[in-house]
Please model this.
Amino acid sequence: MFEPDIFFESSITPAQQALNDELANTLAGEPRAYEIGATETRRRRESGLSRAGMPVYLTDIAVETTCPGLGDSDPVGLRIFQPDVINGVLLWIHGGGWVLGSSKMQDQTLWNIAQRSGVAVISVEYRLAPEHPYPSGPDDCEAAALWLIKHASSEFGSSNLVIGGGSAGGHLAAVTLLRLRDNHGFTNWQGADLVYGAYELSGGSPSQSSIGKNSLVIDEKAMNWFYDSFLQNNENRRDPDISPLYADLRDMPPALFTVGTLDPLLDDSLFMHARWVAAGNESDLAIYPGGPHGFNNQGGALAATANDHRISTIKKWVD
Model:
């Protein structure tokens, strides 16, 4: 159990507050995705014009391949990192509001996880909205998971499977777990690394409902823009395939939920953790004072602590 004071402003260290102030200043001079659109936002990120700077592609380390898509869909791209010692395989689903990001935008982070955790990491190149709205992205993640289940032992020498993702990727990881259980009867995952995911897409959680217009990283307009881009056909946003918080969560693997106290998706992790446990599953909820959305990519002590805990947990799952 966590202590109440973790949510107090006094629990935010001066170092983390300085990082948040720096982030706020950077974001103030950066156009928002909903202002310039998906195509221009992607171009800026790929050109190094966003706050993250120029992406680093580990072309000498990463191996690219494809797996069959679901049904009649096109093949799905996979970007693979294999360390010298492999004790398991992590299927990783990137974030970006279902609209931004790609399988190759986190090369350094994923290679670090692979080396430190002793897992092969497979990053999924799922189709993005608004060009490919729901259910395209979830379908591609389901297809990648099916390929991994079939080929993990022969390709990587291990059947210890872990799934994970950040933000929209956390959502897609949870949806993939449910689809594999319900559509294919597969529940043999060793763990789920779910990092500040969105699990309630109707915007009904208190922390989402009270999001401020000037919230760090994700403001109210951004959240609604991402949801509307992903869910263009006015689907029932409380359908468990869209909002996994409402799903039957029995027979899920052990999970680690990571989230910061300043994240508008805080309640998504709080509620999902509680429902995970109530369904009879193991769950660890790691909450970090002063962490905004994406805080584990900020650098600094808070990010290091969160990432170290994730890596040690993955190692525990696959050893």
Remarks:
- Residues 136-156 form the longest helix (21 residues).
- The chain has a mean pLDDT of 95.
